[in-house]
Backbone:
């Protein structure tokens, strides 16, 4: 007769590490290898589409610390074609091929333009923010479906953080990003984002559309669509001011 | 007796300027708020669910990335000094830029601009002026750390707006000065024929550019390559750029020119806060000053050029840049009077000489540069420039309102030059000018 199995101790359910959850969420939005993605921004005012712009985003981590760098190239409209915006933490540069001018811009200047919406997706939060798990709750996602989620409170941890704090809801099982509220240092709501239309891209289910609602003017909405994900060889030298006039990835 | 005018930066003027700026920004912000908020009596728009919005199908990109082509037309009215009366001014420009991929690691770039102006540009032989801005071939091995380029390259350095002491290849580069706005002027620069190499080494970038002498004198004929303006002497430029941190970048430059003493330069930019960027440029060289050139003394002096400023990001999408500069080779007040004593032709030649060298005319200057996106409505942008020669107390004001439409821009530009008769902005024939500009993008 077999011995009765010993009562196994209850598995100790380790509390999830909020920072690990945040990193997992980042990895779903951003491929871990250097990559390129086409970003199309459609701006709406009170339900009417008022503008469209297209960017190409080239992104990679720069060093062992995991600092994420993004180089945005404007493709459309034609008046902006060829312009570049480089973001590596607080190292922010705008380049206009017409004037051959590389201009350092401040984080506030960057938030004035649509490019700041363009990289709400391609920015890594885990390096610049400290995460705290505040709730496990059901929330409505970008397709109006209820989702079991974990709510993380992110507070700026480095100078490179563009926002004072972020409230981020991620899927309770997969850590996929669902929605977020981006706040200034004073706690003012700057924008709300919903991630949706997940598709298999570069080895993972990734959001291919983000709805961004302006916190100051809720009638202003931007649809950010991502397409043409591709792994690319992106030398670190491309992500420096001195290379901007020579940037030519094609 | 000439009435004494207070210096530009007197406390009274500064206070009035700040009050006006505050009133104006408040009006702009109020207009924005009014535009955004529904007014009493307005029909309420139906509730729009942002999650139900669908974007229109994308139109294919009209041109390959890295290419740009536009046609620009301008017409206006100029009020002139010296009894010349009013005149109609007009311009047609064709602007083309394209980068080409020639093969693995190889690319080429072509950039050209054709201006047809009426009246013709000062010093030009005809109303038509073509500027081949860039035509070069580049090669980059696979790792992207090394870059080699050969041909006509528009190499520009320096973060300042009104004056660029470290822009060593700027001399003679401006062939068609159709505007006084400093950033728009850079669009019309001719490149310099050179062989250039650039190495990226971590947070450092080293570059070496060798530009040969190809001609002796400028050629202002319509379709000339004008190599005498950009390659009038043999030059070698070494540059060392460093990214010290996310907030600080610097460049060190050394220029060697045949027959001249070496020139040193440095520039830096720094992020001081979430809304403040500071920058500075400095260069030192030895050569004749503007005064010694004009007065024929031929004496060489060692002088500095400095420009420093800050750019502030303000509410209502306003960026404000304040910049002060000193050109050690520019005219002091006594030197200006000495040139004035030579007569109006000599004074006009002095202004043209400074413009050709893209150097400030006077010893000291102050620049205010303001941009606002979405003035009153989202597609309307404002640019305003004030350039004050604080040595001769003359001033240039330039304002543009630009509407960005679907495939085109429409702009209204106004400029006014003021000052005593023989001053930088008091002497040019055009006192004020209003013009409309339309740009079609393809």
Residues:
């Amino acid at each position: 007769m077999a011995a009765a199995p010993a009562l196994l101790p209850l598995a100790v359910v380790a509390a999830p590490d909020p920072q690990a959850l945040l990193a997992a969420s980042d990895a779903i939005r951003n491929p871990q290898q250097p990559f390129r993605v086409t970003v199309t921004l459609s701006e709406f005012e009170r339900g009417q589409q008022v503008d469209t712009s297209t960017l190409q985003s080239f992104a990679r981590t720069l060093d062992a610390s995991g600092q994420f760098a993004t180089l945005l190239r404007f493709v459309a409209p034609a008046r902006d074609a060829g312009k570049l915006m480089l973001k590596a933490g607080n190292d922010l540069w705008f380049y206009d091929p017409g004037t051959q001018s590389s201009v350092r811009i401040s984080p506030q200047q960057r938030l004035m333009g649509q490019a700041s919406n363009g990289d709400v997706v391609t920015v890594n939060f885990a390096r610049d923010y400290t995460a705290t798990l505040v709730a496990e709750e059901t929330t409505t996602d970008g397709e109006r479906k209820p989702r079991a989620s974990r709510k993380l409170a992110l507070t700026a941890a480095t100078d490179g953080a563009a926002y004072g704090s972020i409230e981020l809801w991620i899927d309770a099982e997969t850590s996929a990003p669902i929605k977020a509220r981006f706040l200034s240092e004073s706690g003012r709501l700057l924008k709300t984002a919903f991630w949706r239309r997940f598709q298999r891209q570069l080895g993972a289910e990734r959001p291919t559309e983000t709805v961004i609602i302006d916190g100051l003017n809720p009638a202003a909405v931007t649809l950010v669509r991502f397409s043409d994900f591709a792994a690319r060889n992106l030398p670190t030298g491309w992500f420096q001011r001195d290379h901007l006039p020579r940037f030519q990835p094609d | 007796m000439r009435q004494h005018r207070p210096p530009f930066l007197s406390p009274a003027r500064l206070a009035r300027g700040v009050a006006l700026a505050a009133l104006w920004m408040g009006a702009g912000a109020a207009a924005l708020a009014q535009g955004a908020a529904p007014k009493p009596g307005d029909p309420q728009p139906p509730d729009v669910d942002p999650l139900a919005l669908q974007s229109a199908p994308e139109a294919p990109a009209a041109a390959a990335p890295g290419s740009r082509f536009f046609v620009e037309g301008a017409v206006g009215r100029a009020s002139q000094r010296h009894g010349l009366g009013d005149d109609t001014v007009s311009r047609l420009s064709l602007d083309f830029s394209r980068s080409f991929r020639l093969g693995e690691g190889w690319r080429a770039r072509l950039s050209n601009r054709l201006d047809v102006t009426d009246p013709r540009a000062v010093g030009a032989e005809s109303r038509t002026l073509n500027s081949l801005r860039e035509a070069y071939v580049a090669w980059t091995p696979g790792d992207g750390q090394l870059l080699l380029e050969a041909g006509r390259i528009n190499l520009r350095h320096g973060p300042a707006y009104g004056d660029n002491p470290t822009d060593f290849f700027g001399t003679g580069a401006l062939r068609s000065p159709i505007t006084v706005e400093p950033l728009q002027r850079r669009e019309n620069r001719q490149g310099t024929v050179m062989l250039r190499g650039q190495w990226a080494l971590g947070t450092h970038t080293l570059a070496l550019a060798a530009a040969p002498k190809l001609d002796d004198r400028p050629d202002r004929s319509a379709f000339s390559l004008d190599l005498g303006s950009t390659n009038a002497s043999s030059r070698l430029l070494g540059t060392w750029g460093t990214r010290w941190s996310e907030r600080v970048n610097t460049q060190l430059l050394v220029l060697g020119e045949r027959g001249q003493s070496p020139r040193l330069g440095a520039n830096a930019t720094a992020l001081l806060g979430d809304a403040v960027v500071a920058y500075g440029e400095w260069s030192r060289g030895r050569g004749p000053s503007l005064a010694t050139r004009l007065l024929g003394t031929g004496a060489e002096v060692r002088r500095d050029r400095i420009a420093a400023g800050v750019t502030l990001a303000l509410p209502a999408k306003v960026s404000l840049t304040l910049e002060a500069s000193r050109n050690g080779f520019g005219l002091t007040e006594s030197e200006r009077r000495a040139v004035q004593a030579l007569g109006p032709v000599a004074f006009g030649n002095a202004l043209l000489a400074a413009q050709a060298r893209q150097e400030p005319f006077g010893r000291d200057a102050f620049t205010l540069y303001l941009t606002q996106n979405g003035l009153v409505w989202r597609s309307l942008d404002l640019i305003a420039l004030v350039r004050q020669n604080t040595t001769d107390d003359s001033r240039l004001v330039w304002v543009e309102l630009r509407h960005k439409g679907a495939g085109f821009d429409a702009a209204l530009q106004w400029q006014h030059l003021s000052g005593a008769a023989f001053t930088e902005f008091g002497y040019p024939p055009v006192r004020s000018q209003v013009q409309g500009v339309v740009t079609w993008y393809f």
Observations:
- Chain A has three helices and 13 strands.
- Residues 1-8 of chain A have pLDDT under 50 and may be disordered.
- Helices of chain A lie at 18-29, 107-111, 115-118.
